[in-house]
Here is the input.
Amino acid sequence: MIQRPSDDFRVGMRRLAGGVCVISGSTKSGEPCGLTATAVCSLTADPPSLVACINKDTRLGAAVRTAPAFAVNVLSARQRPVAEAFAGLISGVWGEARFSYGEWREERPGVPLLADSPASFVCELDQVVDRSTHLLLIGLVVDVRLAPQESNPLLYVDRQFVQSTHKVDSP
Here is the structure.
């Protein structure tokens, strides 16, 4: 059987561990929506900005084009059920029901934040880049919420969630 470069690419990317986040926002009608993502990184420190990549065929992918803001909620190892819910891995849990996992609050209209996230970044949508199946969201960070306790980061590698052995200290 002939291996295609895209097959090798997928296998190679499975070997790259990524921090797990839930990207959250709201639909045009105000319903909260979100998804689990590992393709998140800082872009610049001045001004503070980040990049989040999401599938454009998701509710959030449709909503983000009309939403002025979104949040990136970093997950700890103990928040694995939140990651599973927002990744669609829990049978019968979709849409707003995902927000029954974890404690969510909305300090800014249309931007749900995970209350005990090790770090949450509230972003104003600066730019959307449409690339094949995904959207690259460039967000200008307007607020950062840091949890007061230390946490073990939740990682995703080789198609599974794993706990880091490294503890992140509180600020």
Remarks:
- The chain has one domain: 21-147.
- The mean pLDDT is 93.
- The domain at 21-147 is CATH 2.30.110.10 (Pnp Oxidase; Chain A).
- The first strand starts at residue 18 and ends at 19.
